[in-house]
Write a structure and sequence with these properties.
The complex is a heterodimer of chains A (189) and B (161).
Chain A (H helix, E strand, L loop, with lengths): L2 H24 L32 E3 L4 E2 L1 H5 L4 E6 L4 H17 L4 E6 L4 H10 L6 E3 L4 H5 L7 E5 L5 E6 L4 H13 L3
Parallel strand pairs in A: 3-4, 4-5
Antiparallel strand pairs in A: 1-2, 1-5, 3-6, 6-7
Chain B lengths: L2 H23 L2 E2 L8 E13 L4 E2 L13 E5 L5 E6 L3 E5 L11 E12 L6 E6 L2 E7 L6 E4 L14
Parallel strand pairs in B: 1-5, 2-10
Antiparallel strand pairs in B: 2-7, 3-6, 4-5, 4-8, 6-7, 8-9
The chains are: A alpha/beta (189), B mainly beta (161).
Amino acid sequence: MSNGRRSIAALGILAGVILVMTACSSGVRGGATQLPAPVPAEVEYAAAAESPMAPSLEGRLVDDTPVDLEVLAAGRPLVVQFMASWCSSCAEQQDVLSRISDEYGDTIAVAHVSGDTDADALTAYLDEHGVDGPVLVDPELQVWRSFAVTEPPMTALIDHEGHLVRLWPAGADEEKLGEQLDRLVRGSD
Amino acid sequence: MSGSFRRAASASALVAAVLALAACASPQSAGSAGSDGHELELVVRDGHLRELGASCSGARPYLEFHAGAELALLDDDGRAVFSTPLGDGEAVKVDDIDYGAAPRIPTFCRFALGAVNLDDGESYDVSIDGHVVAEHRADAAATMVFVPALAVIAPTTEETE
């Protein structure tokens, strides 16, 4: 083999390795790689100490990673969206969650709890709507029941100490969710 | 008439007959019913708190009633005489009580099914994604399929043995 051909072959192998590494590092949408990054150092939080503690939030992500409230929140306020792939209103709510997530960045965490029994339908939904953040699968609706979810969407807000601050049946209003987050993240109240 | 022409004509007639039989055996789908079909609605009596007119699906324990789920009406022999994927439901009133300024009130979730041709007096099983969930008795006045039926068992406070 000539030097030129060897160089081309080496480049091809390198490109393949890079492609594989990129694919692996991006992980499964909704899986463990989507868990929160460390809390930014300069951020302070206010607790909603008058609120009751949130119910148990234990389960597995779409990639079978076991998680609980501590892992999902990682020391910051957590927005939990209860949803299903067949739910039209859930799809409409994704824009609200995306804007909230963009605005507050790593100062908060956003997680989804899916009631889907069809994993393929859930994957298609997550891809279609570009859902970021961890997605807990709850086909038996155990977590849904814990939070008294009867119809998706429903949004729950949990402070950094684990208090259940607010539930929004039919999904959170963006302005009201923002007001609550401002109180928790910036301690303005 | 030549032999080849007769064979072609016979073959065409046979194909037409097969197509006609196939059409008769196929279940109606939404929008395919004739002009004498009745507009039918599915009402999921879940009593869930919603904004009136909001888009809805069945609330727990009726979560299987949602957009994309396949609804079918089955005759005595278990054949589907009508089938359609559900669209979004609409939250409708359950009573005439004045709930004041409450934004969310008790509602049922209603799905439009379109025009359906059913035999008056006949009963049909209602299935959703292959699971029979209710029975519907057809007559000209019956424009709604209710889920669940109002009384599945006799109301009692006694424990089940």
